[in-house]
Write a structure and sequence with these properties.
single chain; 425 residues; alpha/beta; FAD/NAD(P)-binding domain; seven-stranded mixed β-sheet; 21 strands; elongated; binds flavin-adenine dinucleotide; FAD/NAD(P)-binding domain-containing protein; flavin adenine dinucleotide binding; FAD/NAD-bd_sf; oxidoreductase; FAD
Length: 425
């Protein structure tokens, strides 16, 4: 008896979607062979999907965004596929493409070596601030939030570094929580409790959106007592003491510095690729792949390795883009795997086409927000309806967990490309 495994590293938006797709549309089509079983195995450090999208509100207040709304147990969402679905709580530490195995350190302290017939890398990225990343398990992140919220209560000065959506949303949530909801016509709070400063490296907020929308965001931030400093980067930060609640000195690229009770680093992303061979990565440390087929094609990678989600070089990121990418990577995986198992030449590829239209939705506090969808500017009320009221939890959390979006494999036309022979074997 042997088992052929589709191994998925990372159990967040991309990894879980890839697992549902594999269970629904890959396993049923694999050749039935005497003594061979197939399974889908997901490796993830936490047992729970973390609804990272809601982190700006969750970090600010557990009354407004309780833990029960941001953590969702993974395994129960796959009971329909037991025993073909397996979950391993741990982290991948090494990939051996020659032996087609991945080393995994489990939370129990075991070292596993998991063989794969096909490998999907979906390990995403971490943030410099611990507020926006579930690095280990739910309990650890809840502790981070508890400690942060205890400090936030008494904070009089807060600096947020980074003028992207994470910085803007977090500054908005925190400012509104501390300074209150503004009056209907007020352009700023009368007696703000805290001075909140958002430091933006660019000349405008929200790089993906047009400048006019960035200006609206600034106005909404001002209403809840947050000032924006433009064209300035945070170049360093250091605690001014070792005691609990010590201030932080935030050094800026213009040579000035700010002292703050709390500094939140919302700049940039760090791809979770430290466990992969350096030569598989691009110059941003993302996994380099064929931008059409999402195969990892470095010669040392060997056959049947794919990348999905924000860790891939093919994408500018975001959950919506995954709906375009997951079916592509998984269809190509299926084509390659069937050819490998049958000893035949694979058929045509499915190709990924990104949607590069201006699309981003950014709540600013619990009432306002800015954004655009498919190139059309959204009114603040629409941003609230889509995202600001509950960070899309009601609309998307359970369907995401269950993989509802991937019930059908979707229409596609095979493309015969020169890469096909190169990437399968
Ligand atoms: C505050 C915030 C708000 C956001 N809001 C939005 C939004 O409104 N809309 C939107 O589209 N996007 C939003 N994003 C971006 C969105 O969260 C990402 O696009 C999404 O999380 C990417 O999913 P992913 O599965 O590729 O990676 P991740 O969500 O980063 O998940 C990667 C998973 O892999 C695990 N992992 C890491 N290393 C290993 C390893 N060695 N072995 C095994 N597992 C590993 C991680 O623990 C994690 O579970 C937001 C991001 C942040 C931080």
């Amino acid at each position: 008896m042997s088992t052929e495994t589709i191994l998925i590293l990372g159990g967040s938006f991309a990894g879980l979607s890839a697992a549902h797709w594999a269970l629904k549309h890959v396993l049923p089509q694999l050749p039935k062979k005497e003594g061979v079983t197939y399974n889908v195995t997901v490796v993830n450090p936490s047992k729970d999907l973390y609804w990272r999208i809601a982190a700006p509100r969750a970090c600010a207040s557990k009354e407004m965004m309780p833990a029960s709304k941001i953590f969702y147990p993974i395994e129960p969402a796959f009971t329909y596929a037991f025993p073909k679905f397996k979950f391993v709580q741990g982290s991948a530490t090494h990939v051996d493409p020659a032996g087609q195995t991945v080393s995994v350190a489990t939370v129990e302290g075991e070292q596993l070596s998991i063989p794969y017939a096909a490998l999907v890398i979906a390990t995403g990225w971490s943030t410099p601030s611990p507020l926006f990343t579930q690095s280990t398990d739910r309990a650890a992140l809840e502790q981070v939030y508890n400690a942060f919220q205890a400090n936030l209560k008494n904070a009089k000065s807060i600096v947020v570094g980074g003028g992207g959506p994470v910085g803007v949303e977090t500054a908005g949530e925190i400012s509104e929580l501390l300074n209150g909801k503004p009056g209907f016509f007020a352009s700023a709070p009368k007696n703000p409790k805290a001075k909140v400063t958002l430091v933006c490296g660019d000349k405008k907020l929200l790089p993906v959106l047009r400048e006019a929308i960035g200006k609206d965001a600034q106005q909404f931030l001002k209403r809840v007592g947050c000032d924006v400093v433009y064209n300035t980067k945070v170049v360093g930060s250091s605690k001014l003491g070792s005691e609990e609640g010590a201030k932080t000195k935030v050094e800026l690229s213009n040579g000035e510095s700010l002292e703050a009770d709390i500094y939140i680093d919302a700049t940039g992303m760090r791809p979770n690729t430290g466990f992969l061979p350096k030569e598989w990565l691009d110059n941003r440390n993302k996994v380099a792949c064929n931008p059409k087929t999402l195969r990892v094609e470095h010669e040392s990678a060997g056959p049947r390795i794919y990348v999905v989600g924000d860790v891939g070089s093919y994408t500018r990121g975001g959950v919506m883009d995954q709906a375009l990418a997951i079916p592509v990577a998984m269809t190509n995986l299926r084509t390659d795997l069937i050819a490998h198992l049958n000893g035949t030449v694979p058929g045509g590829d499915r190709h990924y086409e990104p949607n590069l239209k201006e699309s981003q939705v950014v709540p600013i506090g619990t009432q306002k927000g800015v954004g655009a969808f498919n190139g059309n500017k959204l009114p603040s009320q629409m941003v609230w309806m889509l995202k600001g009221r509950d960070y899309m939890i009601g609309m998307m959390a359970q369907p995401t967990l269950r993989g509802d979006q991937y019930k059908k494999e979707g229409k596609w036309t095979p493309v015969v490309s020169s890469q096909v022979g190169l990437s399968s074997g």
